[in-house]
Amino acid sequence: MFYCLFLLFRFLGLLCFFAATIFMTKPEVISTKTIYEGKIFDVNIAEIREGETEYKREIVKHNGSVVIVPIFADKTVALVKQYRHAAGKYLLEIPAGTIEKNENPETGARRELEEEIGVTAENIEKLTEFYVSPGFLTEKMHVFLATNLTKTKQNLEEDELIEIEKITFEQAFEKIKNGEIEDAKTIVGLILAGVKFGFSIIS
Predict the structure, then answer these.
(1) Each residue of 181-198: b (16+ CB within 10 Å) or e?
(2) What's the rounded Cα separation, in Å, for the pair 185 and 119?
(3) Which is nearest to 138 in space by CA: 54, 44, 56?
(4) Rounded CA gap, 42 and 21, in Å?
(5) Which element (helix H / strand E) includes 91?
(6) How would residue 14 be classed by pLDDT, with cut points 50, 70 and 90?
(7) Which residues, other chains included, contact 110 with Cβ-Cβ below 8 Å and sequence gap of 6+?
(8) Residues designated as active site
(9) Alpha-carbon separation of residue 135 from 59, 101, 125 (angstroms)
(10) Which helix or strand (DSSP H or E) is residue 199 part of?
(11) How far apart are CA 144 and CA 124, in angstroms?
């Protein structure tokens, strides 16, 4: 009897789920107007109709980016220190960069790794991907782990003024806890990469 009731409720739950999925239609984009075109991103104003409601959204259109956690043979990780004017200070980050037009994320990760750190990776593994701030920004970050590194040469852009710092996972996690590392992608990348090597931020 109880098993039959369990099956009935489970069936009803699945039925409600599929019904909601079928009838939940994607909002209609009425119009899109580009109000700014930049080197890295554009800004659009989109007019949207969702059911009986119409509203506008200001959207920053970005091609996406790659984030790399480079791990050396001694299990240290390379970070870059650079001035971030939006934050008004120097920040400690893992290497990252914008995906070029029609570029595969892994290809972009390998390119950025060599450009910023001056190494190539025999092994590169995708850890995750996530939207940075989907309320107004289309940028999705693709996070990679790079291992079996070979030293080559940096190839920085003219306005890339960075310093490389190699630290252990223990030091990195301490810097996250005490606020020395404030960059979200760096925190996510270090925690996920640390798990791969048996390190945890939770002590």
Answers:
(1) bebebbbbbbbebbeeee
(2) 21
(3) 44
(4) 32
(5) strand 89-93
(6) low
(7) 120, 121, 124
(8) 158
(9) 8, 23, 28
(10) none
(11) 6
- Helix 169-177 crosses helix 184-196 at what angle (to 10 degrees)? 140
Structure tokens belonging to residue 95: 């290497």
Distances in whole angstroms, Cα of residue 103 to Cα of each of 90, 96, 109, 165, 167: 29, 15, 10, 28, 30
Tell me which of 10-19, 76-85, 90-99 is least confident.
10-19
CA proximity to 64, closest of 118, 104, 124, 95? 104
Class of domain 63-196: alpha beta
Q: Which residues lie closer than 8 Å to 152 by C-beta, 6 or more apart?
A: 114, 118, 119, 120
Beta bridge partners of 181: none
Q: Which two tokens stand for residue 32?
A: 């899109």
Rounded to 5 degrees, φ, ψ at 124 are -140, 130
Residue carrying the six token digits 């390119």: 111
Give pLDDT tens digits for 117-158: 999 999 999 999 999 999 999 999 999 999 999 999 887 877
